Amino acid sequence: MTNKLVIVESPTKAKTIEKFLGKTFTVRASMGHLRDLPKSQFGVDVEHHFTPKYINIRGKGPLIKELKTLAKKADKIYLATDPAREGEAIAWHLSYILGVDPAAPCRISFHEITQTAIKGALKDPQSIDMDKVDAQQTRRILDRIVGYQLSPLLWRKIRKGLSAGRVQSVAVKIICDRQLIDDFEPEEYWTSSVVLAPGKTPKITADVVKRDGKKLEIHNREEADQVTEDLKKASYQVTDCSVRDRLRKPAPPFTTSSLQQEANKKMNFSTKKVMMLAQQLYEGVTLGRKGSVGLITYMRTDSVHLADAAVSEIRGYVDANYGPSYLPKKPNVYSSRKNAQEAHEAIRPTSVSRTPEDVAPYLDRDQLRLYTLIWKRTVASQMASSVSTLTTLTIAGDNYELRATGSVVKFDGFLKLADRKDEEKDKKVPALEKGTAMNLIRVNEAVQHFTEPPANFTEATLVKELEEKGSLEKKTEMKRETAESILAKTDLSKSMPKEVYEERLKELQKKMEHLHGELYRRRIPVVLGFEGWDAGGKGGAIKRLTSHMDPRGYVVNPTASPSDTEKAHHYLWRFWRAMPKAGHIAIFDRTWYGRVMVERIEGFCTEKEWKRAYGEINAMEQDLVNAGAIVLKFWMQIDKDEQARRFKARQENPKKQWKITDEDWRNREKWDQYEVAVEEMLEKTSMPHAPWIVVEGNDKYYARIKVLECVTEAIEKRLKEERK
C-alpha cells in the first residue's frame, strides 16, 4: 500500500482535508514558515546579489523532525501550502528541508477546500513556481533592509521600540500628509430650496441651482436672506421635464481589499479581524455531522473573476429562488483593476446552496455576519441590474433656476439581496408638461455650510488609498506592522452597575447549572484556564462561575510551584494528569502558560525551552479539542494603578492580608517584561478552537459577568452542534 504525505499550512485545514482523502494519505501542517531570516543578524548579503541567509525558525525543530520522518516513509510528497506567493515560498522551503526536487511535480494548489477541489489538484501536480518564490523573497529582503536601516533611526530620533517597514512607512507618510493640513480655513456657503406644487398636491422640493444663468453661490447670511426674499416674490413654471430609466449594475464579487473595506464600513470590523474570520471560513467550520467544511474560497486575491462552475451554480440558484426575470441573459463579467494578480478567483462561497440561514447554527456571530456579506455579494453579482425611473424637473422662478429630481424603483433586480441601508429609496417626482405653472407652498430656511478638510483615514479608507496609489499588494502583509497591541486595545473603562450585575449574575448562574447537567449527559469535557495580573480577579470570577455547579462534576486546580516529582517530568505532565474526564469540567487557576511567562522571565527555563513551548502548548490544546473538549482561556486584564489599589486594600484588610506578599510587589517591578510576554503568548496561542479571551477587569462586576457569558455561550454553541 502506497503512503502519500500532504503538507498544508494550518492544522485546521489539515483536519478538513484529511476527511476527503483515504487511508493511504497522511496530512500534516507546517504551521506556517519553517525557515526565515535570522532575527539576530541582518541576514542579507548585499554585496553578493542580495543573497538571503535562511535558518530554521527556533521552536520548529520537533515539527521539522516529524515531517522529515514522515517524508522518508512516504512514496509521494505533495506540498499543498496556500496558493499565493507566501504559500509558494513555504512550499519551496519545505522542498529544501525534505529533500524534494522543486522542479518535480510536487506542488498542488486549490482555491477552495472541497472534496472536488482537493482531488482535482492531486490529479494535476505541478512544479514549484520559482517566479512566485523569487517575488516573495524580494519582498522579504526589502522588509529586512528597510526595517534594519530605518528602525534604528526611529529609535534615536523618536522612541525606542518603534519599527519601520516598506508598507508601514508609506502608510505613515500618507496619514501624516493628511494630518498636515493645518492651514485649512473653512469657507462659508449657503443652500436654498423651495416647496412647490402644480396644484395643492403633490408637493415637490426643488433646489435652487442657478441665478441669471450662472451657478448660484451664496457666501453669507445677508446674501441668503436676499435670495429668500426673491424666491418669495417669484412665479414658477416647468421649463423642462426629463424622464428616463436608469440601470444600476450589481457590484463585482469581493477581492481582499474590497472585502476589508466593506466589512469595516458595514460592521466596523478591523482589517485584521476580517482576515482572521475569513481564514476560519476558508480552512473549515464543523457543520454538525457533515464534519469540517471550507465555506469560502481563498481570501487573498485581487481578482473579481468567478470560475465557470461557480457562475453556473449561482445562476441556477437565482433562477430557482427568484425567477428568470432576476437572471441576466448572459453571466455578468467584471474587470479587475490594473496590475491585479489574476491567479485566484474572487472570494465566494464554495457552494451558494449553503445559505447563511443553513450554516447559522454552526457559526459564531461575527463569522456569520462575514459569511452573509460574502454570500450576498456573490449571488447579487450574477443577478440582473435594477431599473429605476429617474424624473428631473427644471423649473424657472423669475431669474432663478431650480431643479427637482426623483427616482422610483421599477425593478429591484439584485437589490433583492440588498441590506436596508443599501436599498434604493423611492423619491417620487411627477412628470409634468413643459409650461406647467407651479404654486409656491413655502421657501425653506436657507442652510449654512462650511467646507471641511479631508476626513481622517479609517482602516477602510486607508486600505483604499494605499491600493489606489499602488502601494498595497496585500493589506494582510502589513498586519503585524500596523496591528495595535492586544492589551493596549482593551477598554478598561467598561463597567456594570451593581443592580444590573446582581440580576444578570442570577440568570447566568441558573443557566450554568442547567448547562452543567447537559454537559454530563452529553459526555462533553470542558477545560477552562485562568491567567492574569496578580489581583486581576481570577478567584472572584471562578467563584461566581462555579457557584451553582454540581461539585461532583468539576475541579478547580490551583497551580503552585512544581514539586520535585513534577520537575522530574515534562512541564505539561502535571496539567495533563488533571484534565477532565467526559462530562466533567476542569478549571485551572494559573495554567501551563507559566512556562512562557513566569518561567521565562524569572529564568526557570532556557530561552530555547520557553520558545519551544508555544508549539507544545498548541499541540496539547489541539489534542484536547480533537478528543471532544471545549477549551477556553481567560486573561484577566487590569491596569497598573488598579493593581496597586487592590494590593493596598488587601494589606489594610486583616482578613485578606494573606493574599498579598512581598513577591507580589516585586513582580510589579517587572510589569513591562510580563506585558511583552503576555502579548506574545496571546498572539501565538490564541486559536479558533482554543481562544484567548481578554477580560476587561478594572470593574469586577463587568469581568465576572463576561466570564460567565463566554463560558455559557461556548457550551450552548457546542450543545447545539451535538443535537444536529
Structure report:
This protein is an alpha/beta fold. It has four domains: 4-137, 3-Layer(aba) Sandwich (Rossmann fold); 188-249 and 390-450, Topoisomerase I, domain 3; 256-381, Topoisomerase I, domain 4, CATH 1.10.290; 498-719, Rossmann fold (3-Layer(aba) Sandwich), CATH 3.40.50.300. The protein is built from 24 helices and 23 strands. Strands 9-10-16-15-12-17 form a six-stranded antiparallel beta barrel. A five-stranded parallel sheet has the order 20-21-19-22-23, sandwiched between helices. A three-stranded parallel sheet has the order 2-1-7, with helices on both faces. The protein is globular and about 100 Å long. The two termini are 36 Å apart.
Properties at a glance:
single chain; 724 residues; alpha/beta; Rossmann fold; Topoisomerase I, domain 3; Topoisomerase I, domain 4; 4 domains; 6-stranded antiparallel beta barrel; 5-stranded parallel β-sheet; 24 helices; 23 strands; 41% helix; globular
Spans with pLDDT under 50 lasting ≥5 residues?
471-484
CATH topology name of the largest domain, in short, is Rossmann fold
In helices, the fraction of residues equals: 40-55%
- Average pLDDT number: 88
Strand residue percentage: 15-25%
CA(first)-CA(last) distance: 36 Å
Molecular shape: globular
Q: What is the number of E strands?
A: 23
The largest sheet, given as strand count, sense and whether it forms a barrel, is:
6 strands, antiparallel, barrel
Question: What's the CATH architecture of the largest domain?
Answer: 3-Layer(aba) Sandwich
Classified in CATH, the superfamily of the largest domain is P-loop containing nucleotide triphosphate hydrolases
CATH secondary-structure class of the largest domain: Alpha Beta
- Count of the domains: 4
